[in-house]
Amino acid sequence: MRKRKVNIPLKPLFFVLAVFIFLIFISGYILQLLTTADYFKVKDVAGGEGLNAEPLYLKGKNIFLLNLARESLYIARFCPDCLKVKVARILPDRIFVELVKRRPVALVKLYRYFAVDQNGVFFNISQEPKDLKLPVITGLETKISAINPGEVSKVKELSLAISIIKETDKFRNLRDYPIQRIDVSGLDNITILIPVYPDNLTYNNWLPPGRQKILEVKISEGNIVERIAVMSGLINQERNNLANIKYIDLRFKEPVIKFQDAVK
Fold it and tell me: What does pTM read for this prediction?
């Protein structure tokens, strides 16, 4: 049987190969041009509020050779109050840096005041504590000896205080009675302090003590969701009589309300 002769079209094959080599050459030339030309070197670093000098090190670098994810993490190291940092290219020669700041949920009183977010991360504050009108967490002086901005604390008492704040935010009626202070010196005797007016029951965190009525709510660790729900119900029930309440005690099975004129 005669063998069938296979004819390989050499000219089209050579043409395809030539085109492929040409494309590789052109791609390499373009890549070299993009990564070496002065036209694509970073000339300006722009950003939103709070941008400091750290990102300026990006100037002069090729905009295409920058690893944006890595640069974001590096810049975040110098911004403890940043939740994350976003870095974007603006062709041909600009970098935009956006600092997404942490949202403080409370202040923690140690050897000085720190802000803390919902994850327990500490960071500095630029304003006076009284101007922020945030709950102040006290009683941690002996439990947190030293802290650096940007660090997270896993101290149980701090986590408990933050969970109390987060739970109270879920109840609409409690928004009229924001927490002024939470003392977590002891897990079995946590005190929540809520200022109220004797007359119209509105609230101001930083009125002089002589003009404030402080409602105390005592709770202990465990069943925080349930205890805050009970607190919300009792405050709503007694909203017209809060100025006459000395404290509400939720540490036991049945809640206790002690009035100012109650017999000891």
Answer: 0.77
